Amino acid sequence: ETGVTQTPRHLVMGMTNKKSLKCEQHLGHNAMYWYKQSAKKPLELMFVYNFKEQTENNSVPSRFSPECPNSSHLFLHLHTLQPEDSALYLCASSQDRSRGGIEEQYFGPGTRLTVT
Amino acid sequence: KNQVEQSPQSLIILEGKNCTLQCNYTVSPFSNLRWYKQDTGRGPVSLTIMTFSENTKSNGRYTATLDADTKQSSLHITASQLSDSASYICVVSANQAGTALIFGKGTTLSVSS
Q1: From chain A, which residues contact B within 8 Å (Cβ)?
Q2: pLDDT digits (tens, 9 = 90+) for A61-91
Q3: % helix / strand / coil in chain B, to the nearest 5?
């Protein structure tokens, strides 16, 4: 339960605001992920970091800007969002994507974002 | 197109009853299939991961099956409890590292007393 933490848990922001979501993992993992979960839709992978390097960006709009200062922390900076960006943003971590083998991902509780 | 379809979309059962959730996929190539449980307001938690060669895997009262030939999986819940009320998500990975995870929309299970 406390392996991956996310703050804040809830966020309401206007379209002109700038805010940041924070994720921290206490599992000693080296890979971290951002996902978006909208109502009635499957989880969408947004960004992947492995050993602090971004390895995937799934065509995410530039109004979402990730930052990974070290293997334990991941941020998602938000700027001029749209109402359709309202969703649950989930962070996850896994051991190491480069070692081979099945990577189990551990999810945080998410940040419920509402854009007004 | 890689897709994961789950059925039913939602399900209501009485406490103590069994139920089975279905997952059909068209993902290729196939590496592994995962079932996650997501409680309301929480992140998904892994229940099982199965590779091509595994056709059944249990985790307590949860038993997952996989038929890689027909590209179908099921999650059977035995003697349901109120705490089983959650969304159950089927995820298919095209490789071991999970760089190509295809998520289903999930089945929402409600267990009532």
Answers
A1: 4, 40-45, 48, 55-56, 90-92, 94, 97-98, 100-110, 112
A2: 999 999 999 999 999 999 999 999 999 999 9
A3: 5, 55, 40
Nearest 5 degrees, angle CA A21-CA A26-CA A31?
70
Q: What is the DSSP string of A15-74?
A: TT-EEEEEEEE-S--SEEEEEEE-TTS--EEEEEEETTEEEEE-S--TTEEEEEEETTEE
Structure tokens at B94: 């095209």
**DSSP strand pairing (B10-14 vs B107-112):** parallel
Distances (CA, A) of B21 to B27, B34, B102: 19, 13, 17
Tally C-beta pairs within 8 A across A and B. 57
Of the candidates B106, B65, B72, B66, the one whose C-alpha atom is nearest the C-alpha of residue B89 is: B106
Q: How confident is the model at residue A103 (pLDDT cuts 50, 70, 90)?
A: confident
Whether B96 and A102 lie within 8 Å, measured CB to CB: yes
> Which pLDDT tens digit goes with each residue over B32-73?
999 999 999 899 999 999 998 899 999 999 999 999 999 999
Residue A27 amino acid letter: L
Identity of the amino acid at B81:
Q
